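Thread: Newbie trying to understand structure tokens

Hi all, I'm a second-year student working on a class project, and my supervisor (Dr. K.) asked me to get a predicted structure for one chain before our next meeting. I've only ever worked with sequences, so writing a 3D structure as a token string is new to me. If someone could post the tokens and maybe explain what I'm looking at, I'd be very grateful. Here's the chain:
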Amino acid sequence: MSVSPDLQPERGQRETGQREAAPRESAAARSRAATRARLLESGQQLFAARGFHGVTSHEIARGAGVAAGTFYLHFRDKGALFREIVEATVAALRARLDAAFAEAGEERAIQARARARVLVDFAAQNREVMRMLFSGDAEAASVGSDVLDRLAESIAASRRRRLAASGGGHVTAGDDLDPAVVAQAVVGMWARVLAWWTEDPSRATPETLVDTLTRIQLSGTHPT
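---
Reply by user tm_fold:
Sure, no problem. This is what the structure looks like when written as tokens:
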């Protein structure tokens, strides 16, 4: 059925209007994303400097250059913003650890050093988030505990996969240890050492940290 000529201009106007609306919606989306990014950056800086309970949502908004009400268009409360900062950072850390592990191959010593290198470099580049996680605030402690548990679960799962691939045989010393216990011990060591170091990086050089964490993972604290 042919379309009445009288209706064609109306359809053309509607299509033109839709094309014009798309750029406007895209610009609005970009503006919203930019505002959210500023809020996250402001929150990260303030939390690192003053701790979770020393910061209000209004101060975060002011630091981002937006009205206080705008904050709640993006986050339910400051806890939601805090968790998003931490979870995004930890997701990046896990991706870097997975990539380093895959690139290191099957040699256990190379894997341990690659993992230690990623951790130390990551802590150096994300000192604000490290200070947030281990500031002693209850909210930070809760998020930090969740983060460390997920990292430990990832390590335990990796260890179980390696043992399964070996057919259950103990290919290296310590493979008879429970994967969950080992993972919690390793993550606990990482967290404490890196929290201690990021408070004052002059306490040890990055190379000292990498070497020490690697050797402890491979042979414990006994002299070799």
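A couple of things are worth pointing out once you decode it. The longest helix spans residues 8-50. The radius of gyration is 25 Å. Feel free to ask follow-ups in this thread.
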